[in-house]
Design brief:
By secondary structure, this protein is α/β, with parallel strands linked by helices. The protein has two domains: 107 residues, Alpha/Beta hydrolase fold, catalytic domain (Rossmann fold, 3-Layer(aba) Sandwich), CATH 3.40.50; 45 residues. Helix content is 39%, strand content 14%. The protein has a five-stranded mixed beta sheet, sandwiched between helices. It is globular, with a radius of gyration of 16 Å. The two termini are 15 Å apart.
Length: 155
């Protein structure tokens, strides 16, 4: 299963507590996930500004509260200051057949130490650093992004 912390859910309805059938349903590829609260990084990059503008436009088009994007954005930033806060004991207890923790080598938002900590603490986790991309890896290099997921699932 694929998890993107920006989307807030696991593809296919799986959860991190899925257990032991050894199939793909028991495999997780997690992109830019935090282990500890952090102060959101405020980038001034054109890419980030463009992404926020796109998200705001999409939100206005699809949401029943089209003028609520700024409220949502502020709430998410406040949440990131206190969540998540996964204790080492909980992370060490994760039991899945395959798990990858991934981020881009130019990640702007997630502290690299969080990624390294997750990969080192979750039993059997594989650390994947995607080359030449940032937090927006799926848009920046979809071919490499998809290839890394497929390689992980089929190895």
């Amino acid at each position: 299963m694929f998890f993107d912390s920006d989307m807030g859910n696991f593809a296919g309805g799986a959860t991190p507590s899925a257990t032991g059938n050894g199939g793909l349903r028991d495999s997780f590829w997690i992109l830019h996930c935090l282990a500890r609260p952090h102060r959101p990084f405020r980038t001034r990059s054109a890419l980030h500004r463009g992404r926020l503008a796109r998200l705001a436009k999409d939100y206005a088009r699809m949401s029943p509260t089209p003028d609520g994007f700024n409220i949502l954005h502020q709430a998410l930033e406040a949440m990131q200051k206190k969540e998540p806060n996964y204790p080492t004991k909980e992370l060490a207890a994760i039991k899945v057949s395959k798990i990858a923790i991934a981020e881009g080598d130019h990640e702007e938002f997630i502290i690299r130490a969080h990624t390294d900590y997750l990969a080192a603490t979750i039993p059997g986790a594989k650390l994947i650093i995607l080359p030449n991309v940032s937090h927006f890896a799926p848009w920046q290099d979809p071919a490499t992004f998809n290839k890394s997921i497929l390689q992980f699932l089929h190895n």
